[in-house]
Specification:
By secondary structure, this protein is an alpha+beta fold. It is built from 15 helices and 12 strands. The relative contact order is 0.12. The chain binds 5-S-methyl-5-thio-alpha-D-ribofuranose and magnesium ion.
């Protein structure tokens, strides 16, 4: 039984070998004696089953969507089709930024299964940021990944037919987008059923929920998320979607992929680094390590703008700002002006999306391990409160901060406050 011609059924450690043992693209890597495969379920995310499958010849990851949100249970159904969006995003990202995402060996739409490369000895970046580990090349890979995937999935690079087909494909991902629309942009700003927060934050939370500028700003970001189908986004680019070794970085888990505004992925990414920065007192890492995190943030943004500008100048072969209208007419200046405007727009969105991400990871359903694992409740509230204060500032004043250095300085000031 391959799984392809059967009704959907979740895999288990006991059944996986028998169900996938006949699939040549898998046995070629793992080995054909599926009865001897060692299978371990390791999923620690919010949504899916994840198995490590080890055989005589090699190891793969088998990821399978469940028909509900794992974090909550079967009271919250979620379509299996998210595996299809993840698969389609992975194969596009692999083309747009080769080597940064895990190779896909096999996809089964009915069973919602993706079989892909086992990354070892990689660990989830979020855990590494708690352990105080530094990673060479991290910022470079992430900055280039954002620039390449965002640019190459946009009308700056794609022709009209391919772009419209991709927009149509990802537009059907209604339920996954609805999670983001609700949990990220709306729930934090009222007493929604699935929300929870550290009790020591009650007074600050009440102030934030009464803050009209913040609520309006968050909804302006939501409007951009909903209405600006600019490029194919990863859609959930936080530090739990990144795997690292000392010197290698991979991006995983694009099941929330959608067409949206360029600043969303980088904003979510930087917001998670700023939260990791504020959480450091809860993990005993020193001030140098905190500064290293701020350095990573600055380098991601710098790499992003450098690579994006390079692609703009060398690869603008799509249907927008065509070279035939600019450089080919001797109007290189016009192309540079348009680039500067685009980077400014992405910058302001990046700050706004970073801010809403920091707020939702503290007040809404899904929090971050860096804060959740701080047992001292008063210390946790202090770390989270600092994240909330920077987040609020980024949303409300996103048009008034003109460099990453300004934001990092603000983070340092907030980190010193009680
Ligand atoms: C119900 S899913 C909650 C969160 O987990 C995912 O990783 C996304 O970030 C989503 O918002
Ligand atoms: Mg995920």
């Amino acid at each position: 039984m391959t799984g392809t011609d059967q009704d959907y059924a979740p895999l288990s450690v006991e059944t996986l070998g028998a169900r996938l043992g006949g699939i040549e693209t898998i046995t070629r890597i793992v080995g054909s004696d599926s009865a001897a495969w060692q299978v371990k379920e390791v999923g620690d995310g919010n949504l899916n089953l994840v198995f490590i499958v080890k055989g005589s010849a090699g190891t793969v990851i088998v990821k399978q969507a469940l028909p509900y949100v794992r974090l909550v249970g079967d009271s919250w159904p979620l379509p299996l089709k998210r595996a299809y969006y993840e698969y389609n995003a992975l194969i596009r990202q692999a083309k747009r930024d080769p080597g940064t995402v895990p190779e896909v060996y096999h996809f089964d739409e009915t069973q919602a299964i993706i079989v892909m490369a086992f990354l070892t000895p990689h660990i989830i970046l979020r855990h590494s940021l708690m352990a105080g580990t530094r990673h060479d090349g991290l910022a470079g890979v992430l900055g280039r990944f954002c620039a390449r995937t965002l640019f190459r999935g946009s009308p700056l690079s794609m022709d009209a037919a391919r772009r419209k087909a991709d927009i149509a494909l990802f537009a059907e991902s209604v339920e996954l987008c609805d999670i983001t629309e609700t949990l990220v942009f709306s729930d934090p700003y009222f007493d929604a059923e699935r929300n929870h927060h550290t009790p020591g934050l009650d007074a600050l939370v009440a102030r934030l929920r009464a803050d009209v500028d913040l609520k309006v700003g968050a909804h302006q970001m939501k409007e951009r998320f909903l209405t600006r189908a600019e490029t194919m986004l990863h859609g959930d680019l936080h530090t739990g979607s990144i795997m690292v070794t000392a010197d290698e970085t991979k991006v995983i888990d694009p099941e929330f992929a959608l067409y949206g505004p360029m600043g969303f992925d980088i904003g979510m990414l930087l917001g998670n680094f700023w939260m990791a920065y504020f959480a450091q007192p809860g993990h005993g890492n020193d001030a140098d390590y905190q500064e290293w995190i701020l350095g990573v943030i600055a380098e991601i943004w710098d790499t992003f703008t450098t690579e994006f500008s390079h692609l703009w100048r060398t690869e603008r072969t799509g249907i927008l700002f065509e070279a035939s209208l600019f450089e080919d007419q001797g109007d290189g200046l016009g192309a540079e002006q348009a680039l500067a405007n685009k980077l400014q727009e992405i910058w302001q969105d990046t700050l706004g999306f970073a801010g809403v991400e920091m707020i939702r990871r503290t007040l809404s359903l899904a929090h971050i391990a860096e804060n959740d694992s701080i047992e001292d409740e008063a210390l946790r509230a202090q770390c989270e409160g600092r994240g909330l204060r920077l987040g609020r500032q980024l949303v409300v004043n996103r048009n008034g901060m003109d460099s990453i250095a300004v934001v990092n300085d603000l983070a340092r000031i907030i980190a010193r406050e009680k």
